[in-house]
Amino acid sequence: MYHSLQDLIDQANSRQVSLARIVLENEMALSDKTEEEVYELLDRHYEVMVASAQRALTQPQEMVGGLIKGQAARQYKYQNPLCGEYLNRLMAMALSGSEVNASMGLVCAAPTGGASGILPAVLLATGEKLGSSRRQLLDALLVASGVGAVITKNATVSGAEGGCQAECGAAAAMGAAAVVFLSGGSPEACAHAVAIALMNCMGLICDPVAGMVQLPCAYRNASQAVNAIISADLALAGQSSVIPADEVIEAMYRVGRMLPVELRETALGGIAASKTAKEIAKQLAEQDTND
């Protein structure tokens, strides 16, 4: 069992095994599943991730309000992106996951539905870039889940409790660790990437327009997918987070508790309280009444 990221790293180093192996054995112990059964479950989850990350790239999804319909396809078709093909594809797949979620499609909540576009996009885009095998990607998914478990245990992944930093931020941290792992980085580098990713979005509020998980959620899925990549690159370059990852997770939780209720998924503050957002909410409410 592990109770913190440092605990996870210490176990991996002392036994000279990967982070994925520690997380795998923990899952086997908790679920009473064999190694083969755990990987079968991971594979099914990964298939859901693949489908959600690709579904809206060429087929805009129908949803109540339609605030983000066609976003993924628009980004996917964008020519000559300044950020390069890799990051553009990453953003398009993150937007696709958000569209599928908003359309009530099947997604893998990693760690939540509102952040479900991030980890799939990070894994798929990076796996394609690195030529990663399926087993390597499933091991990276194990590492991401281990990070998510620590954040869930010691902080929160709920937007209603900790703001969007707890949802999209946690997903970015999970993705950052997965990318470092896929790239052959050390357990310590994985932890630095987690800390950097969370630092980069510390205090990010949750302010869904009209109370729907569409705007600004989809754009945050795209931006936090990119956050995962740059955080991983910083860690792989040898950058130190200076502040230990577990302390950053604790800080994120404290910041979330300090956010006023208006900035924690209630749609009473932030972008949701703008003039246009209020008009959208009014129109949707009237439409619902008429229906």
Strand content: under 5%
Query: What composes the largest sheet?
Result: none
- Secondary-structure class: mainly alpha
- Top-tier CATH class: Mainly Alpha
Number of DSSP helices? 13
**What is the total tally of β strands?**
0
- The low-pLDDT segments are none
Indicate the CATH topology: 2-methylcitrate dehydratase PrpD
Mean pLDDT: 98
Helical percentage: 55-70%
Coarse morphology: globular
| Radius of gyration over C-alpha positions, nearest whole angstrom | 19 Å
Number of self-contained structural domains = 1
Notes on the structure:
The structure is a single chain. The protein is mainly alpha-helical and 291 residues long. The protein has a single domain (5-284), classed as 2-methylcitrate dehydratase PrpD (Orthogonal Bundle), CATH 1.10.4100. The chain contains 13 helices and no strands. α5 (85-102) runs antiparallel to α6, α5 packs antiparallel against α11 (217-236) and α10 (187-200) runs antiparallel to α11. The N and C termini lie far apart (52 Å).
What's the topology here?
Blueprint lengths: L4 H11 L3 H13 L3 H24 L12 H6 L8 H18 L15 H13 L3 H21 L4 H4 L1 H19 L4 H14 L16 H20 L8 H14 L16 H16 L1
Helix pairs in contact: 1-2, 2-7, 3-5, 3-6, 5-6, 5-11, 6-7, 6-9, 6-11, 7-9, 9-10, 9-11, 10-11, 10-12
Quick structural overview:
By secondary structure, the protein is an all-alpha fold. The chain is built from 13 helices and no strands. The longest helix is centred in the N-terminal third of the chain and has 24 residues.
Keywords summarizing the entry:
2-methylcitrate dehydratase PrpD
